[in-house]
Design goal:
The protein is mainly β and 277 residues long. It has two domains: 109 residues, Sandwich (Immunoglobulin-like); 155 residues, Lipocalin (Beta Barrel), CATH 2.40.128. It is built from four helices and 16 strands. The longest helix has 18 residues. The chain is globular, with a radius of gyration of 21 Å. It starts with a helix and ends in a 5-residue tail after the last strand. The N terminus is likely disordered.
Amino acid sequence: MKKTVFTIITGFTLIFLFSCEPQADKIGAIAPPPSNASIVIDATDPYNPYFSAVADNGFICYWDFGNGQKLVGPQKASSYYPFPNTYNVSCNIYGEGGQGPVKAETTFIVTTTDPTVVDKPIFKELTGGGAGRTWVYNTDPATGIPDYCYQTTNDLADYPDNWMPSASWGQCTRITPDINGEMVFDFNGGSINYTYHHVAGDEGVKGTFVVNGADKTITIVDPYILDYAIDCTNSDATATGVFEIKLLTDDLMVLWQDQKDGGTGWGWSFKRKGYNP
């Protein structure tokens, strides 16, 4: 329910900012702009700190946690920092009616590696305990069967299992350009690494990823997952890089995204490289 509220608020804010701005002189300010912004840190857990945005007349927050994770909505939020570094955290705070923003900034310093990172759920399966795990499409690359990127309904309340490959409506493109591509997740070099390979053995494009264990989501931060540019997906949705993790074991992974485009969602089915179910 909170997610829906934030979506409505965010949509209203953006509509106000981009659609109504030319008429601001006619309707006047809805509320005073925010001021006196700051960020308060609760580092009781040194690897999962809570940040609270404080501002007079603050209404909605646009967070950048400095580790690749960004978030819109709450005035108090947490992020995960398993590796030593100095992270620059910022928050743009808007007032009611889109007034502002005012920006608050701080730094968060981590001096030691979280010793439990390689054993945390999702991280452990994704990365093979940190050393690195390579994921490929869960399909026959010569035929594209079974479906590995597919449409389903986005109504997972009435049809809770429709994220499963067996519930597929089918693909618009049977064989995609990166059918022989790979995705690698690891903690090598003391950082959270993601590498996209268009085909196995190429140089690859490096990025990072952010996991939200509570919501079971993963955000791919530069560049993208396999099949990110398939013609029939909603490019605005896939560009966010945010996917729900519907299935994750040492061998199989299914990512899901509610595309909100004609009542459809999309699923992506992967397997560990070398695994033959």
